[in-house]
Amino acid sequence: MVERFEVALNTPAGRLTTAIDVPTGLIPITAIVPVTRRLGEEAAGLEVQQAIAAGQTISCQMGCAACCRMLVPLSAPEAFALREYVEQLPTDRRTQLRQRMSATKDRLTREAVWDRLNDVAEASRPIPDEELDPINRAYYALRIPCPYLEDEMCSIYEARPAACRELLVTSPAELCQDLVQNPVTPLPVSMRIGSILGLVWGTLTNSPPRLIPLPMALEWAERHEEESRRTWPGSSLLDQVLDNMWRFLSQAFTNRRGASGKGQGGPGKDTDPRSHL
Ligand code: SF4
């Protein structure tokens, strides 16, 4: 049985309204990942519409995978969801992926980057940006293609992490060939879905929000498999997701108001961001 919620969120790029079905019983955290990503994509869609209306062009197109050489962070719920996705693939696809994962691990180990990534994934405290930055740079300097990249296309497109969905640029695509040297113009992101899922997981498990580097996400999810089996009421998970979204949207409104110097609306949680249909 599912319960249907009508969600309305005001974002800096417009109002988002959508219906969400959530199982009425106890569900694992992975069950809330697709719907959370969908809300993020719908918010991103509003940003795209707004950019196009302002005469901008989105440069990102199928077949361009320049940004698939960056280090992608996942929240714990996304790492568990990715493992579930990979586990249901046909055996030959799974084997191919595992081989590429293993080759990536070997290379990162030789370059003395793997252990640094592992320290990030298993950290018992939030890691500040100034500590993450040199690790991101060391990884990007290697220009290692994401292990899920095949012929410059994402082979897990429908299951790709939120961070991959959120990077869209309006600057010329060729600038993305060197994201350190070149100034690129990303579209604003009002809700970081990976961070939101990470915060929800941190609250549920009383642990710090965690960043799991994509190349080790499967290994990490296997190590923590027992945690992934825990369950919570579906409506309570959705509540936590929406509360964190509202906090992100509040911040996004504040940031943009500061950037433009003009007054704008607010995130408008309404009295409650959701209402039963
Ligand atoms: S998961 Fe897909 S979109 Fe994300 S970096 Fe890897 S290949 Fe690119």
Write out key terms for the chains shown.
9 strands, binds iron/sulfur cluster, alpha+beta, disordered C terminus, two-stranded antiparallel sheet, 277 residues, 13% strand
Task: Describe the protein in words.
A hairpin with a 2-residue loop joins strand 5 and strand 6 (153-154). This protein has one domain (2-276). Residues 262-277 have low confidence and may be disordered. The chain starts with a strand and ends with a strand. The strands form four sheets. It has a three-stranded antiparallel sheet. A two-stranded antiparallel sheet has the order 3-8. It has a two-stranded antiparallel ribbon with strand order 4-7. Helices cover 47% and strands 13% of the residues. It has helices at residues 33-53, 76-87, 91-110, 114-121, 129-142, 162-166, 193-205, 217-223, 225-228, 234-260, and strands at residues 2-11, 14-23, 26-28, 73-74, 149-150, 153-154, 212-213, 231-233, 274-276. Iron/sulfur cluster (SF4) is lined by residues 65, 68, 72, 146, 148-149, 154, 156, 160, 164.
Oligomer description: single chain
Which overall shape is indicated by the principal axes computed on the Cα atoms? globular
* Sheet of most strands: 3 strands, antiparallel
Q: Low-confidence parts, pLDDT < 50 over ≥5 residues?
A: 262-277
Radius of gyration: 19 Å
| Computed structural class | alpha+beta
SSE pattern: EEEHEHHHHEEHHEHHEHE
Strand runs, count: 9
Q: What number of structural domains do the residues give?
A: 1
Beta content: 5-15%
In helices, the fraction of residues equals 40-55%
